Amino acid sequence: MPLTDDQKSRMLPSKHRQREIEKQSDENDRFHALLDKLEDVTTNGRLKDMAFHFTDTKQVVKSNLIAGIARGVGLTIGVALFVSLLLAILNLFEPLPIIGEWLANLANIIEANR
């Protein structure tokens, strides 16, 4: 419910209201300064990265080779863990008649193709 004109005219200003406004203004100023600093750091970092890529080709090849090897090893380990977990779970279903027969046929097909 909004205040009437009479209530607005009799309303006393709060002493704390101005302090709160100043406090929020200071916090906003600090936030903007921090945001500007973060922008400068990321921009300078990106420029350094671009300069690094265009100047030192041996270092770029070395870092890309290491990154590729790390991705390959990680992918291999991840797939191995996933497949072993999948096989362990499927092994639990072996006593079931239909799934057990299907798994036995699958194992026979795999053995025949080795």
Brief sketch in words of this structure:
The protein is mainly α. 87% of the residues lie in helices and 0% in strands. It folds into two domains: 16-55; 58-114.
Descriptive overview:
- InterPro entries: DUF5665.
- The termini are far apart.
- The protein is built from four helices and no strands.
- The protein has two domains: 16-55; 58-114.
- The protein is mainly alpha-helical and 114 residues long.
- It has helices at residues 5-10, 15-55, 57-92, 97-112.
- Helix content is 87%, strand content 0%.
Question: What's the helix and strand layout?
Answer:
Elements: H1 5-10, H2 15-55, H3 57-92, H4 97-112
From the structure above, extract its key features.
mainly alpha; 2 domains; elongated; 114 residues
Assembly context of the chains: single chain
In total, how many beta strands? 0
Helix content: over 70%
Order of SSEs: HHHH
- Provide a count of the helices: 4
Shape: elongated
- Number of folding domains? 2
Regions with little confidence, pLDDT below 50 for 5+ residues: none
Beta-strand residue fraction: under 5%
- Coarse structural class: mainly alpha
Biggest pleated sheet: none
